[in-house]
Amino acid sequence: MATLRCGSQPKGDEGVAEKSFGKTVLGWFVVQEGEEQAETPSPEALIAAYADPLTPPPVELKGALPRVETTTSTVDFATIYQAAQMGGEEIQRVERASALLQTLPEETPANVKKQIVEASLKAFGVPVDQIIEAGVQQIQALEAYIRHGERETQDVLSQGSSRVEELRSEIEEIKRVMETQIAAQRSLTQLSNEEKLRVQKVLEFFGQEAVARVVKDSPKLMEPS
């Protein structure tokens, strides 16, 4: 008989095991949405979190897996189950049980629901153990899909972090080049003005009128505006 493996549990959730049935993250049940609202972590925190060694996934997923975009709110779970080598009949067992549960009023006591569903499934010739087995297979497939996403996320975060560092280094280098150029321009201006003063002394020796006449007559020179 196959051993059921528990899924990954975030660090710091030691008290989760004490939560009520259907609200654990210890393997086959997940925390309900809205129960714990954490602040959005920083990129640095995400990189550190996903950099932790991941335990092997409970099952191996084969083939192309659906990508989830931020603009979509659905996932092609059928493809994930197929990637976990689950047959259509196995998936239908869980779907049938789920459909039966949805037809029952919310106020129906849990023990009554269990009796009704089990009796209905028995009438259909579907053993409860097979439904449980298929359900756990689905949970394991979803856990493996989450791990797959974590690995992709780690790759993107690592590449992005490296690129950010490269850009920071590039920006610093550009700033250094700019500062060097500004300093060079100051030197250039100072040295050129000193040279102009040296040459100006020669022109002053011949007099302003002579300089003006030569400038006016020479095709090489331009009169000051």
Topology (elements, then pairings):
Elements lengths: L42 H8 L26 H7 L4 H16 L6 H15 L3 H79 L1 H10 L8
Helix pairs in contact: 1-5, 2-5, 3-4, 3-5
Report on the structure:
The protein is mainly alpha-helical. The protein has a domain at 42-174. It has six helices and no strands. The chain has helices at 43-50, 77-83, 88-103, 110-124, 128-206, 208-217. Helix 1 crosses helix 5, helix 3 crosses helix 4 (110-124) and helix 3 packs across helix 5 (128-206). The radius of gyration is 37 Å and the shape is rod-shaped. Mean pLDDT is 80; it is low at 1-27.
Keywords:
single chain; 225 residues; mainly alpha; 0% strand
Short structural description:
With 225 residues, the protein is mainly alpha-helical. It has helices at residues 43-50, 77-83, 88-103, 110-124, 128-206, 208-217. 60% of the residues lie in helices and 0% in strands.
